[in-house]
Design brief:
Length: 183
């Protein structure tokens, strides 16, 4: 009788221990759903309403058994003005004037790195160079051609920003005041 009671107590304890907490398949499904919503934040062209619904569904149905930071992150994504739209519309940090300058201090763990060069800035400066009158010195023309060659090999805004910075360092050296300092 004691062994029968002990067996029942053991079975009851095992059942209780196995039934507590989120099970493995639910935790896996929650992880997969979280990563899906997180990846939607990083893809351009995804409807913001679809992102919001994804995070809303995850917070309602899949947040059980997940770490607190994930749950808080999902809840922050549901706040109006949060998410990648807010990050892309925020002010862009100015680039350091010194080459190889330090990055600005982060404001949040979840915010993306600030852009050091604004997209299209190099193409706008290149258009300005082309639109300027032909009364450019030989030195300035050399800088302009170097800019065109540099931009010709670019396929990203970062590369264009680099070319623009090189050009902005080249043209001041062509002024008469800069030439007299060199002598």
């Amino acid at each position: 009788m004691a062994s029968n009671l002990l067996r029942q107590a053991t079975l009851l304890a095992t059942a209780l221990l196995c039934g507590c907490g989120a099970n493995v398949s639910k935790t896996y499904e929650s992880d997969v759903r979280f990563e899906r919503c997180y990846s939607l934040d990083w893809h351009d062209g995804v409807d913001p309403e679809l992102r919001r619904k994804c995070w809303e569904e995850w917070a309602q149905h899949y947040s059980e058994g997940q770490p607190r930071d994930r749950v808080q992150f999902a809840k922050r994504q549901l706040v109006p003005g949060a998410g990648p739209e807010a990050a892309s519309s925020s002010t862009v940090a100015p680039a350091s004037s010194a080459p190889g300058g330090a990055l600005p201090e982060p404001t949040s763990v979840f915010s993306p790195m600030p852009m050091m060069a604004t997209p299209g800035a190099a193409t706008a400066s290149a258009a300005a160079v082309v639109a300027q009158p032909a009364a450019r010195s030989v030195c300035e023309t050399r800088c302009d051609k170097a800019l065109e060659a540099c931009l010709g090999g670019c396929s990203s805004a970062v590369c264009e920003g680099y070319c623009s910075q090189r050009h902005s360092r080249c043209t001041p050296k062509c002024s008469p005041a800069a030439k007299s300092v060199e002598r």
